[in-house]
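Question (not urgent): is this output format expected?
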Amino acid sequence: MEQSPDEIRATYAVLLIADFTSIIGCIIVLVGFWRLKLLRNHVTKVISCFCLTSICKDVPSTLLTLTQAAVYNRGFPCYFYSIVITYGSLSCWLWTLCLAISIFRLIVKREPEPQRYEKWYYLASWGLPIISTIIMLAKNTVDYVGNWCWIKPEYVVYRFMLFYVPFFIIFGTSAILVGITCHYTYQVIHNGVSDNKDRHVKYQFKLVNYIIVFLICWVFAVVNRIVNGLGYYPFATNLLHTYLSVSHGFFASMVFVYNNPLMWRYFGAKVIRCFTLFGFCTETAKRLEKNKNNNNPSPYSSSRGGSNKTGTSNHNGATIDSTPGYDSSYELDSSSIPYEYSIQSGNIPNNSENQNNIQNESINNNVNNNNSNEHSQNENIGSSNI
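Got this back:
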């Protein structure tokens, strides 16, 4: 079905906005991963690989959209556009699945060295999409389809078998793994290991928000292709499909920034510094400058020989700065992984005796590390950047 000129212009504008915002969001994550050593662990490496893949997909897509090369030349530019979309999207989905697997193995399976699976993540996420891409090209199914080059509408079976069936498999597996992980954290609360239920609920939300973003960004693509297969081409679903599917990298990167206060403190300090040149926001700038590198140590670092911490530590193991201006309210933020989920804790206790054993063991560890002179019976909390 042919689009009207107004619909074409609207779709074109939305496509460019989605591409540029996705590129910017992923660059922010990669810069944070590069500049902030406290963010470097196995989970953030997986997220960074997702963002790197998204950039490699979005940059050529943006250039092809701006130049309209695929519109005027249905040869190599059009085939290249279809390769970028198919391979890049499938790879990003697989990195999301790898993230769900990593969180599951870390929290539920208490994997001491999750990074040893990274080579398989690379192989799967950057290798498996080649299969669908080769089949798509070999069957000569590619043509310009209105917004980009992809599988032609008459090849509905190929669209679903090569693209959307893998989507359902990847999303379903990711949702199951996250569901099991959330059930595990619920057991921790239900068995009375922790009294701080609000923190646990926030942490559960941080486990699922990547999967929520994954679903929201692609559900309209599935709906739109089903409707197209029935012979209908509504502009609204096409526009939502265009914006949300292309913006997956942007929304995933914003989730990462939300989950890691260290990120927005760091970039906030950079932005506010511009206002201090004119005498504004000086106190806020000083506060952010003091706390921009403050974060709780990651439990992943315990298996790799430390987390490059600086400063002193409180009884919760958080790295703190004793100089004036340090804000202790940042010691335990909502991105912390509860101690009961970390690789350092034992099985879920079923009674108060086991709970006391965990607390006593935690206290003894604090004494041995000279982290505190006052023994506390509060729960120990580590941290994870998710």
